[in-house]
Amino acid sequence: MKKIWYIYIKDFKRIVENKVALVTVLILCTIPSLYAWINIKACWDPYSNTGNLPVAVVNDDRGTSLEGKDINVGAKIIEELKKDNSISWQFVDQWQGNYGVNEGKYYALIEIPSDFSSSLATLVTLNPKKPDIIYRANEKANAIATKITAVVKDKLTKKITTNFVQTVNKEAFTFLNSLGGELQTNKAEIFQIRDAMNYTSENIDKTIKLINDSTDHAVSLENYLYKVKNTLPVLSNQIENLQSATVSGKELIGITQSALNSLLTNCKNNVMEIQVINSKNQMLIAELKNINNSSIRNQLKEKSSEYSSNLNKMDKISNGAMTYYGVIDSLKSGKDISKIVNKLDKNNELVKAQRNILNSISKSIDSGAPSKDINGLLDSLSQVSNEVTANLIQLSNSFYSEGVSAVNITSNKIMDKSSMANNILEGTKIIIPQLNALASFGIASTEVASKQAGDTATKLQKFQSSLNELNNKTKGINEDSINNMISIMGKNPESISNFIASPIDVKEEEVYKGGVFGVGITPFYTVLAIWVGVLLASTILSTEFKGLENIEGATLIHEHFGKMLIFLTISLIQGIIISIGDVFILGVVPESLGLFMFMTILTSIVFTVIIFTLDSVLGNVGKAIAVIIMVIQIAGAGGLYPIQTNPKFFQIVNPYLPFTYSILGFREAIAGPQIHNTVVDILILLLLGFGFFLLILFKKPFHKLLHFFHGEFKKAGL
């Protein structure tokens, strides 16, 4: 050991006493830090400067007309982009844009074609056509810049779609608001039409009975015809009234169809609202578990109350949805919607089950039950909440497969029957003059009159059948159903359109303190600079001790470890300078400064052992191997990109690279250490260093061969 320290101290004095050597070593100590700092600073926060990226925008949109209004979506996009500073938007014509992209003046081109507005407007028609936005990127200019502009392009198209959907739905619900007002005003007339159809059906029964009686009893036909003749004016007036009612009914049907469509939208919104509340409850369960583990019983009680309040909201919305589907079911569309109703019933049962569990939790809190028991109840609550999620997905699927079909079938049947009723009324008006003629000449021609009466009875029976069917369809129209439709149509257009355009808000939460991009790449460049520093030292300093033969009993092993201490001293100085500069010059704020400095020291020691041992045992070949290892580690350690995105070779070698565990250790220090992960990284790094340390066993066998190669290399004069 004394001989090792003698070699170390002797070399140290040689450096201090020789000014040229001292300056060289000082420069050697600072160069790696400059390498790290310059690279980290250059990449510190590139995404905050995207406002300097020039992107060409070409607007050829000619605009279109929608619902009598002239719109030009392209012009509105340009107005919005002029307010946006996230990219340096350049508004040019098509020739300038294409020329600029080809010549590298612009990183990308976004072109709004001439038919953009007209294509977008087809989204509210039966034959929608997807609008196109043309995007051209100059991949030659810069690979990262094209990725940034591609993200900007995606955000732009998403924003256009959201704004258009919001505008269309706002107009639709504004129109429904006015229809709801008309429905409220004409509610009494709707009930009068319904009652008039019932009264007409009853009178037709009497008329048919008289006709049938006259056919069976020809003897009393003459008296019957007198009665018919007296009844015809009343029947004629009733038919005219019924035709007026049918016309009004068609208007009502149009309003009803709009109301049914709006009813569907409301049902869909109810399902979405229940899903949102259930998602909040699942987040509350996680909070309840954290609070329970922290033994803060007061907060546990408060969060339980908040969960219970959410269940009340869910119950109220679910009951409202049951009411809407009750209205749809009462229309007797012929489409079975029992699955939807069953899913809503099941949702209510699951809500009830969650309430029971909450009551048990509350009792456990009051009785001071252990956290383990409460956690068991919270797990049960989470399981029931997951069942609610699965049930809501099935409910949403049943809504589209059954609910929508039921409403469409009902609407079509009502319209068909209304048209049929009107046709029958027209036919009946033609029959009335025939009945009048029959009454005038019936006495002289009883046989002919009986035949015509039979025909008339048949036609009246057909008309009555259609009228009765129409009556059955309108039985569901009552005070409650009309009020429900009015309530649906009266929803606020602004809030409903906003919800439909963007029903989900994403809340982003950082797990660890990430900061800017430069902080994220600090571990990689710090580790790389430490390796480069040791590699530079191996190219400038010798691994052999001059005068070893003058030290009594000194061996190659003494020489190896004595010289390694010099390399290790320089590497530690390099690493400490790099780390101190990371913190106090660049502004990196590690969560654990102690671990940050420890990883610096450990990395310097391990890298020195690896590179110095390779150089000492294998000479220039060892230096070349150290360079090759560095190159592989740059790509294979996952320092810049996730290792899963790299080719298979690098994924295979990743667990065997020292960079991998040094970088992970620095990341733990910066973002906040997980003790288990940190200990594993440190142990594996030490194990890798020890593996290279064992190469010292080949020092003596390779010594003569190394000197032979060194001598031959000198003879080459290179």
- Quick one: biggest sheet? 4 strands, mixed
Radius of gyration: 44 Å
Helix content: over 70%
What is the number of helical segments per DSSP (H or I, 4+ residues)?
A: 22
Order of helices and strands: HHEEEHEHEHEHHHHHHHHHHHHHHHHH
* Percent of sequence in beta strands: under 5%
CATH second-level architecture of the largest domain: Orthogonal Bundle
Helix-and-strand structural type:
mainly alpha
Q: Look up the CATH topology of the largest domain.
A: Helix Hairpins
Question: What is the CA–CA distance across the termini?
Answer: 38 Å
Strand arrangement in the largest pleated sheet: 4-1-5-6
Oligomer: single chain
Number of domains: 3
Given this structure, which CATH class of the largest domain is correct? Answer: Mainly Alpha
Instruction: Output mean pLDDT.
Output: 75
- How many strands? 6
Membrane topology: Multi-pass membrane protein
Protein name: YhgE/Pip domain-containing protein
GO cellular component, one term: membrane
Organism: Clostridium cadaveris
Task: Give a written overview of the molecule.
76% of the residues lie in helices and 3% in strands. With 718 residues, the protein is mainly alpha-helical. The chain has 3 domains: 1-44 and 516-716, no CATH class; 54-175 and 480-501, abc type-2 transporter like fold (3-Layer(aba) Sandwich), CATH 3.40.1710; 206-455, Helix Hairpins (Orthogonal Bundle), CATH 1.10.287. The strands form 2 sheets. It has a 4-stranded mixed sheet, sandwiched between helices. A hairpin with a 2-residue loop joins strand 2 and strand 3. The longest helix is centred in the middle third of the chain and has 74 residues, at 221-294.
